[in-house]
Amino acid sequence: MTAWRASANSLPLQIVLIVADGPEAAGLWSQLFIEKGCNVVVENAAQAVYAARILNPQLVLADLNLPHADRLALCRTLKLVSGAALMVVIPPRPQEIIESYAAGVDECLAQPINPALALVKGMAWIMRRQLPRPHRFALEAPL
């Protein structure tokens, strides 16, 4: 597990888990989120679920060169384990994108991806997670 803390001023709740299978992708994504004050942890696919359980990140960004079925299985598991917003870098194939959303992915980033756009979307998901959620009350009809 590789972890970076952006600064002493960063909010401890802004944990981003980067799941990547190459140092180039991991370095790119981690640097972008560190510059925005996030605490970043980089893992490979084999350790991603374990890290998500321990860290409880606000955002998981997966940039993996896996077969589609394996990527879907990992996404389902990550979503169940962490409950974090899940962004996946994926080839631009419509059927794979549809299946990814059905597997619980919150944001599909079709390749080639503009890193700045991915960063903005990721930060938006993090901020959404930090907003207070309204209480939902069930109204009961009088008997």
Task: Briefly say what this structure is.
The protein is 45% helix and 20% strand. The chain has 143 residues and is of the alpha/beta class. Strand 4, helix 3 (68-82) and strand 5 form a beta-alpha-beta unit.
Report what the structure shows:
The protein has 143 residues and is an alpha/beta fold. The chain contains five helices and six strands. Helix 1 crosses helix 5 and helix 2 packs parallel to helix 3. The chain is globular and about 50 Å long. The mean pLDDT is 86.
Mean pLDDT value: 86
Q: CATH fold name, please?
A: Rossmann fold
Estimate percent helicity: 40-55%
Strands of the largest sheet, in order across it? Answer: 1-3-2-4-5-6
What is the element string, with H for helices and E for strands?
Answer: EEHEHEHEHEH
Which percent band covers the strand fraction? 15-25%
CATH architecture: 3-Layer(aba) Sandwich
What name goes with the CATH superfamily? Response regulator
Query: Given the C-alpha coordinates, what overall shape results?
Result: globular
Which parts are unreliable, with pLDDT below 50 for 5 consecutive residues or more? none
Provide the structure class: alpha/beta
How many H/I helical runs?
A: 5
- Rg, Cα atoms, Å: 16 Å
DSSP strand count = 6
CATH top level? Answer: Alpha Beta
Major sheet details: 6 strands, mixed
Domain count: the total is: 1
- End-to-end Cα distance, whole Å, is 57 Å
